[in-house]
Amino acid sequence: MKRLIQRWIAHAVLSISLVAATVGTSYGEDKVVRIGFQKYGKLVLLKGRGTLEDKLKPLGYTVTWTEFPSGPPLLEALNVGSIDFGIAGETPPIFAQAAGAPLVYLAYDPPAPQGEAILVPKDSPLKSVAELRGKKVALNKGSNVHYLLVKALEQAGLKYTDIQPVFLAPADALAAFTRGAVDAWVIWDPYEAAAEASTGARILADGTGLVANHQFYFSSKKFLTGNGQAVDAVLDALNEADEWTKNHIGEVAAQLSPSVGLPAPVLASSLKRESYGIRPISDDVIASQQRIADTFVALGLLPKAITVSDLQRKSGS
Questions:
Q1: Residue 303, Cα to own-chain centre: how many angstroms?
Q2: What is the pTM (predicted TM-score) of this model?
Q3: CATH architecture assignment, domain 2-110+214-311
């Protein structure tokens, strides 16, 4: 099963090569919503159901889908204009905004703190986050789990500088974790559930009591201007898929298993840790994002201070 998981993650990473091709072929096409999705998440569920196309057709739009291995490259694709709409966690848009990406926060998922965790090998002597002092910890830089690690260390009385961060994409992190090259791995679902199933990894700590682990939906400012009706149609379709999924987790896991490349029980475990009920962006959640941004500025990990509310969708847009 471990080889299956490794092949699955490697396939996901290869999808980033599609960005350049998307840039080259998408421009010049009228009335297209170009959606970026990750290997797992609400947009995968929507894509699998095939209902968005029917919802957009009366508006004169078609849909193209491009897969990405994580939030940072997805938002970079949105930044350079190769996609119009996508999903990412809390931290990637913070770094994207600091880099000048023209993003707009549209909506978000409720908290799902158990959907990300600090993992250690099943035979690791580590029993608490406080024992990570001096240890090598793998993580995807600028992803949601980056903030989880910071907050978990803080709660344990450690500083970020007390550990050795090893910045690795999920595929490389799994390999390093499996061969013992790192002491811990901070990762999100379904990689989290897959690692538990394939390697017996133990959860040292998840986001409970530490972070919300929100997922956000974005469009580019350029696309939102003049295409607001299409954006709202995508959000409506997501809500419908979301409502159906939460009541049919076993069925959804079985349906997604062949396309995602993970066993249905692994997907079911991930889906049970998801949150449901997509919400419009609020001042409270923007304030939460601002606290994350300020934390990374204070740590010297963000190149400059940002004002998250600058990217909040305005009424009527």
A1: 22
A2: 0.83
A3: 3-Layer(aba) Sandwich (3.40)
